[in-house]
Specification:
With about 280 residues, the chain is α/β, with parallel strands linked by helices. It is about 50% helix and about 10% strand.
């Protein structure tokens, strides 16, 4: 049943990957006044506007939908999951299907709705303009993490998912030449593209290292216009194993590659940049 989204705020988490977005999605799922899909990361806008890096997501969703439909799950959770997968498949080639999904899914009592897809940090200005055209009352959420730490966590996740040809530590140098890993660390580019479309007051910026506390979560709730509710800060979600630490040589190599990101963050955010960031 289609419902009006008028007066509601569209919340969009745009990253960064491996910066606490799974925890945030889980937090929103537990609230009655916020709606997020049962499946995190719809990969709608990145598949459209960054096909050079994200073109495979449409195929993956088609495959997930067909496999899940074949199971014929009867539980309410299974039906909801099938609904979102079917809706995501409809979005392929249909620009209006994204908004239609939320019109059908968002309960009347929810003041805030949206989704979190970290790959949206890759969007060009054109992608952010497409978002604003569909949802005039948009609020962006962007959490940053120490760039070197973020990249290595991303690489370890890829190892866990058998996406690498060898251990993450051995693939680190190659990852510094791979835009799949590097561009997700280029926070200055993400914010430049987002700010070209959205006003500063419509973009929440936080840091992974200092976000998980009452003060920062209260700041986010205020940003979204919802009552503060504390989170389970001791419950990590989707954490990549960290069995092998980076040696000084690899850290220096990565710090040099990502120097523009560090320079931007120090100039832009000053003392708000966590002390734990690599110097």
């Amino acid at each position: 049943m289609s419902r009006s989204l008028d007066g509601k705020i569209f919340m969009l988490g745009i990253g960064a990957q491996k910066a606490g977005t799974s925890w945030l999605h889980d937090y929103f799922k537990k609230r009655r006044d916020v709606f997020v899909p049962p499946v995190k990361e719809l990969h709608h806008f990145d598949a459209r506007f960054r096909s050079d890096l994200c073109s495979d997501f449409d195929r993956r969703f088609r495959e997930r939908y067909e496999k899940f439909r074949a199971r014929d799950g009867k539980s309410r959770a299974a039906r909801k999951r099938l609904e979102i997968l079917e809706a995501r498949v409809r979005m392929i080639g249909d620009e209006s299907a994204y908004r239609t999904y939320f019109e059908n899914a968002v309960p009347e009592n929810c003041r805030v709705f949206g989704e979190i897809t970290p790959a949206y940090s890759l969007l060009p200005e054109e992608g952010f303009r497409a978002i604003a055209s569909q949802f005039p009352r948009t609020r962006l959420i962007f959490l940053m993490r120490d760039p070197v730490d973020r990249l290595y966590s991303h690489l370890r996740m890829a190892e866990r998912l058998d996406m690498l040809t060898g251990p993450a530590i051995e693939q680190f140098a190659a990852a510094l030449r791979n835009p799949q890993y590097v561009e997700r660390c280029e926070y200055h580019r993400t914010l430049a593209n987002a700010r070209s479309v959205f006003a500063p007051e419509d973009i929440f910026i936080g840091f992974y290292e200092t976000f998980f506390c009452d003060a920062e979560l209260a700041r986010l709730c205020d940003f979204l216009g919802i009552p503060f509710k504390p989170g389970d800060y001791g419950m990590p979600v989707n954490v990549s194993p960290h069995e092998t630490r980076l040696d000084a040589e690899r850290v220096a190599m990565a710090r040099k590659k990502l120097a523009p990101v560090y320079d931007f963050c120090r100039a832009e955010f000053g003392g708000k940049v966590p002390d734990s960031w690599l110097a």
